[in-house]
Write a structure and sequence with these properties.
Its EC number is 2.1.1.-. It is built from 7 helices and 7 strands; from the N terminus they run ααβαβαββαβααββ. The protein is of the alpha/beta class. Strands 3-2-1-4-5-7-6 form a 7-stranded mixed β-sheet, sandwiched between helices. The protein is globular, with a radius of gyration of 16 Å.
Length: 209
């Protein structure tokens, strides 16, 4: 099966491959923010999109797996029916390296563990940056390149791992100010060593350029 979306459809059809709830770094950095409009890039089955909506965000959630989107939509619909989802999620099936978001429309753009081949990764970053509103933030969390030999888990293909230099350069060229770029250890249950995550926070100046 050579179609990446079809492979992910198959994985999601067997159940969610992700833990419940948000990644700890995403949680710590986003929870203090005032809810607004967010874009969850390559959202999978929506663990972050639904968490954001639970905080009151209005979320655009995009992924190329139709099965993942269906799972996320069903979960969000159930929570909304139960009256415990104050925000809303707008779900979309699309390739994030080609999908063109509404320019400067999101107070928060989230890329959580979006691992693509280099050309696709840069295109996705450029499109994601274009969606950041004046004063808004882009948050990227991904498996750093150093994780391959010094960390735990994550993709085993170096070309798809996060390169901080490429990310920061691309975001700067896209008009964002990088306010944080570092590699953080993340404890993994049952593992002898921590995972190494690249974390980048960038902001579009309120006085846009």
């Amino acid at each position: 099966m050579s179609n990446p979306a079809a492979r992910w459809d198959e994985r999601y059809a067997a159940g969610s491959p992700w833990p419940a709830g948000p990644n700890a770094t995403v949680r710590d950095l986003v929870a203090p923010l005032t809810p607004g409009r967010a874009r969850d890039v390559a959202c999978g089955d929506g663990r972050h999109a639904i968490w954001l909506a639970g905080l009151g965000w209005q979320v655009d959630a995009v992924d190329f797996s139709a099965v993942a989107i269906a799972r996320g939509r069903a979960r969000a619909d159930q929570l909304a029916a139960d009256g415990v989802l104050p925000g809303q999620v707008r779900w979309s099936v699309a390739d994030v390296s080609q999908d063109v978001p509404e320019p400067r429309s999101a107070d928060l753009v989230l890329l959580a563990y979006v691992h693509l081949l280099p050309a696709q990764a840069v295109a996705t970053l450029e499109r994601s940056a274009s969606a950041v509103a004046p004063g808004g933030l882009l948050l990227l969390v991904g498996h750093d390149r150093s994780n391959l030999h010094h960390g735990t888990g994550g993709p085993q293909r170096p070309e798809v791992l996060t390169d901080l230099d490429v990310v920061t350069h691309t975001l700067h060229e896209s008009g964002l100010d990088v306010v944080r770029a570092e590699v953080l250890p993340r404890e993994v249950e049952g593992a002898e060593r921590a995972a190494l995550d690249a974390v980048v926070v960038a902001q579009r100046p309120a006085a846009t350029r």
